Amino acid sequence: MDHTFGSALVLLLLVLDPFGSLPIFISVLRGVPRERRTRVAVREVSIAFGVLLAFMFAGRGFLDLMHLSERSLEVAGGVILLIIAIRMIFASGGEIYAADGQREPMIFPLAVPLLAGPSAMATVLLLASRQPDLITQWVGALTLAMAVCGVVLLSAERIRKLLGTPMVSALEKLMGLVLTAIAVEMILAGLKRYFFG
After folding, report:
1. 104 phi-psi bin (left φ>0, alpha ψ -120 to 50, beta other)
2. Helix orientation angle between 156-163 and 165-196, rounded to the nearest 10 degrees
3. d(CA 103, CA 68)
4. What is the largest CA-CA distance in the chain?
5. Could you say which of 37, 90, 91, 172 would form a disulfide bridge with 20 (CB–CB 3.0 to 4.6 Å)?
6. Measured at the alpha carbon of residue 129, what is the angle toward residues 123 and 134, in degrees to the nearest 5?
7. What pairs with residue 112 in β-bridges?
8. pLDDT of 95-127, one tens digit each?
9. Who contacts 164 (Cβ-Cβ below 8 Å, separation ≥6)?
10. What is the rounded CA–CA span in Å between residue 47 and residue 107?
């Protein structure tokens, strides 16, 4: 399944799921002083961006080192995305990464695994390994997707108040449905390449 800049951006936004993570953002940042929230948000998004960028550029070397094929990565990435999508549809997930609210988050849980989680790592690795000639487009799509995550993270409380909790929950379910279809497509494409490629 080949991607364009637009489809890669949409895929990354679905995988990163900034709107679905709003309850987690709010919960984790509740214990951070208001004057430090911007700095913390920018730091965590930057760390997550660095981790995903490293996976994007080291993808081919990682596959060669581990003797993994693109087909196995595509199927594995699709399975991970499918699990994430099912969680988005059937569970709120707000409590999964929630901190105790008494300390400032550093890397965990906002940067890793909430933003730069296994599904995001597998996605950027797959993009770079399948179409390495378009790496500048993938870097651009990742940069834009992380910028959106940063804006949502900074505006989490305001967005929740503006949209309301039911609308945020409905958005998460909708994103989960779309991500389910993408995950199934990735699995089928990997299997097709394995058996007929």
Report:
1. beta
2. 110
3. 40
4. 57
5. 172
6. 95
7. none
8. 444 455 557 888 887 898 789 987 888 899 889
9. none
10. 7
